[in-house]
């Protein structure tokens, strides 16, 4: 391995796309980011333009390399990490999407899930996929796209042409990793972690499930090949005549939360991390056993290396955390995210205010698609500082909801939680989180662990790193937070649970 070679990571997230370059020590050498448009055609609908995402991907790669004076030939490999569940379908002949990508937050298929549950099929789906049936996952999004795409836009004359062409493999399905890999290499591939989030994949047999494909009416021919997250055979290489001007292997891919698990070096059963992004996602490695949850968590694929057994994880998916801070900005209660810490510290408490940010329903462990955002406990004396502090507390309380469920399911007491994501720069939030879950919090030096995880997966595949012990040696703590001032935490948590009950089932049918 030459001293001047690196591994690149494409981190395609909900609000934007980042490209980062890492050296052998895991240090960030280059970094570029661009936002993309959030499209809201109807209440509860969220879409992205997949072509905009691809154009931004090319742009951030070139920008990062140019700014750091790195030639593409110096990249040993590229890894991909992505917003999970977001679904795109495209025309194999033209490479053009058949419509906007449907984002993981989108709720348009809520009725479809309720029909599934009414038909008594919920448990079967859950046993096969490890997932709580929800509009969150990809299956009903793919079904909706196939049923509702206007064939005129595809220059076809008959509505059934879309489904007919999907049956022939001429319309391709993918989560965003698949879309990016396809545009990088020309190959139609996903990894085991992203496949496990589609609600079409049997996580025990590790293959697409015929009964699920029939239930959701998704043709097998439209699906990508499933590969390990770190693949010595690689997914293909970039085109030397393409935008990079070099052949670079694309050798690793993980959904963003599994990538963070990998980047935080949670390689052993019992290791856990929480990522604070648009939502928050807490994962605990359960080893080679798929522990089925009895407390509202998801069982998911954690990662797989070439020639190695699949590693599973328990996951608590919280839909809205960082997005709640963005909402404070939208409502002009704060000018930027960093102001939230200052304002929260300026008051001793929320003065009895509780905020349940169920803008897209509630995920684990409640799983209420019709819950909606709720603020309770306000008086005439309530000020913005109280609401801001209640917003930060809502992030910590939701994490405790998940942590308690995780301990019940796994039988493992959480001794320490590794954290990452944009919100962990907020020291007040980190200390608050430690107090509320009564557990040590460890914040690493490199907090962009989703990108780092995908870089690690790709680098291991091509021999840039030889062993996972090298990766463990790279992991360094920036700061630790230990519980303090916990005297009234349980009482406040009980009140939080009351506030959650008031948010449930608000958006009833027809609202």
TrEMBL record:
ATP binds at residues 14-15, 278, 322, 422. Pathway: Polyol metabolism; glycerol degradation via glycerol kinase pathway; sn-glycerol 3-phosphate from glycerol: step 1/1. Its EC number is 2.7.1.30. Keywords: ATP-binding, Glycerol metabolism, Kinase, Nucleotide-binding, Transferase. One of its GO terms (cellular component) is cytosol. CDD domains: ASKHA_NBD_FGGY_GK (cd07769). ADP binds at residues 14, 18, 278, 322, 422, 426. It catalyses: glycerol + ATP = sn-glycerol 3-phosphate + ADP + H(+). HAMAP family: Glycerol_kin. One of its GO terms (biological process) is glycerol catabolic process. It comes from Natronocalculus amylovorans. Sn-glycerol 3-phosphate binds at residues 14, 84-85, 136, 256. Glycerol binds at residues 84-85, 136, 256-257. Key enzyme in the regulation of glycerol uptake and metabolism. Catalyzes the phosphorylation of glycerol to yield sn-glycerol 3-phosphate. InterPro entries: ATPase_NBD, Carb_kinase_FGGY, Carb_kinase_FGGY_CS, FGGY_C, FGGY_N, Glycerol_kin. This is Glycerol kinase. Residues 273-461 form the Carbohydrate kinase FGGY C-terminal domain. Residues 6-263 form the Carbohydrate kinase FGGY N-terminal domain. It is an enzyme of class 2 (transferase). One of its GO terms (molecular function) is ATP binding. The gene is glpK. Pfam families: FGGY_C, FGGY_N. Belongs to the FGGY kinase family. NCBIfam families: glycerol_kin, PRK00047.1.
